[in-house]
TrEMBL record, chain B:
UniProt KW keywords: Membrane, Transmembrane, Transmembrane helix
Top-level division of the source organism's lineage: Bacteria
Name of this chain's protein: ABC-2 type transporter domain-containing protein
Segments passing through the bilayer: 20-43, 55-75, 96-118, 130-155, 167-183, 216-237
Length: 228, 243
């Protein structure tokens, strides 16, 4: 588990990452409640946006490895690509899960109205994995980490708007409402709605299932070894 | 005046930086289009469609990030990669830095104007006063460039300066209350009104639209004042760093 240990260390080694990983989630807890929309406090609505950013920041570490030729050295070392990738991903998912715990249970401690914190935590967990997987697939088509980050950032803004995380999806015109289904953020927004109005457990399972489907597909796309 | 011969190349470098074009032109165009779909036909009681306000906000918000290209060009040319080459050239380096700034301001204003043209002719947004709008946009562009350069000159690590410039942009969007309502107390009220370039410029344009010419000029002049003060700060910091 050496790689795992160092992946954890590296994730926290840079100042921007520390701010992203600790300060921002805590700030999320303290954001105010919305009036009519969103149903959960603003911080919990926007936490999805933060998860997407953290996902790409963490996945960029793998891209950095490729840029610096570490992957090439690993290829001749007695370690398989599977070990390298799985230990890295394990470290990142632990960080993301910790973040979700901080946000959800910190909110509970502060007495925020979260309806069903347990389910909320599971929803954020599924979305974190989806975000990490998408980021992993994204970096596999890039060679330059700055370019990949900036283009992904612009993509995030569009996805977040189109998925109904920033604006309630009810006011969208029909066409956009139907298109929104393909974005993972749509499913997060649906999940958040479910948390508040909880109807059937099956709906919640479907939402998580879709997020897991994204995770599986994008991990497969992103896990191909690229040596350049 | 030998610097003038470099202007052409600075302009070319800016026009070819595809990431900046993507972030400051393509993304806002997509967002504006999406918003115009969502808000199509929504007209509040005042009679001005929501999309007008939204597109004005968007055009101004993206001006907050206009300084990033100038920052990276100056950093590359005068501090790192091309430093020695630039100092070997027979021209005044300060004037060169200044010419990059002017080019950046023009470039950023041009992008803003393109967004306005797009939203007028494709999305049917009516801009009341083009000249005033462009004046405010250029003020925002210059302010953003100066702030970014202050970060470049005052922070040792350029990565941190870049992050700070993003904090400047996103921070003022958040403080303007566009994402969520800010708490109501004196400090946040100030930063959500007269202490915030974004709300100042939005207010200036809104007042001009309602022909409150006095108020509009007042808010624009606060921006201009901030630019002058920060320009002096930038000069002092820049002299220490370059000289």
């Amino acid at each position: 588990m050496t790689i795992f240990k160092f992946a954890l260390k590296r994730s926290f080694s840079n100042t921007t990452n520390i701010i992203f990983l600790t300060l921002f989630p805590i700030a999320c807890i303290f954001l105010p409640n919305g009036e009519e929309w969103p149903f959960l406090p603003y911080g919990y609505q926007y936490f999805g946006l933060l998860i997407l950013f953290v996902g790409i920041r963490l996945a960029t570490i793998i891209l950095e490895d490729r840029e610096k030729g570490v992957v090439k050295r690993l290829a001749v070392a007695p370690i398989s690509h599977f070990q390298y990738l799985s230990q890295n991903l394990l470290a990142y998912s632990i960080i993301l899960i910790l973040q979700c715990i901080i946000v959800v249970y910190g909110g509970v401690l502060l007495g925020k109205e979260l309806y069903q914190p347990g389910w909320l935590f599971i929803l954020y967990g599924s979305f974190s994995f989806a975000s990490l997987a998408i980021a992993l697939a994204w970096i596999s088509i890039y060679r330059n980490k700055d370019a990949s980050f900036l283009v992904y950032m612009s993509l995030i803004f569009i996805i977040v708007v189109l998925g109904g995380l920033l604006i309630p999806i009810e006011i969208f015109p029909d066409l956009l409402k139907r298109v929104a289904v393909i974005f993972p953020t749509y499913w997060l927004a649906e999940g958040l709605k479910w948390i508040v109005f909880s109807e059937e457990i099956l709906d919640f399972l479907l939402i998580n299932g879709v997020l897991w489907l994204y995770t599986i597909v994008f991990v497969i796309v992103g896990s191909i070894r690229k040596i350049n | 005046m030998r610097v003038l011969s470099t202007v052409k190349f600075t302009a070319l470098r800016m026009l070819r930086s595809y990431i900046v074009l993507l972030l400051l032109l393509v993304v806002p165009i997509i967002l504006l289009t999406v918003f115009s779909f969502i808000l199509s036909g929504a007209v509040p009681e005042s009679g001005v469609p929501y999309i007008n306000e939204t597109s004005m906000t968007q055009v101004l918000v993206f001006q907050l990030f206009g300084g990033s290209i100038v920052m990276s060009l100056i950093y590359n040319d005068l501090f790192t990669e091309n430093k020695i080459r630039m100092y070997a050239l027979p021209f005044n380096q300060t004037m060169y830095a200044f010419s990059i700034m002017m080019c950046g301001a023009l470039f950023s204003t041009l992008l803003g104007a393109l967004l306005m043209v797009y939203s007028q002719f494709v999305l049917g947004v009516m801009w009341q006063n083009w000249l005033w709008m462009i004046y405010i946009i250029s003020l925002m562009a210059v302010l953003s460039i100066i702030v970014c350069l202050i970060f470049t000159f005052s922070v040792k690590n350029f990565k941190i300066a870049e992050r700070l410039s993003e904090v400047y942009g996103i921070g003022f969007v958040v403080l303007a209350g566009l994402f969520f309502p800010m708490p109501e107390n004196g400090f946040f009220d100030f930063l959500g009104s007269y202490g915030n370039p974004l709300t100042l410029s939005m207010g200036a344009i809104r007042d001009m639209g309602e022909s409150n010419i006095g108020d509009a000029w007042f808010q624009a002049n606060i921006l201009l004042g901030a630019i002058i003060i920060l320009f002096v700060v930038m000069l002092i910091l820049g002299r220490r760093k370059i000289g």
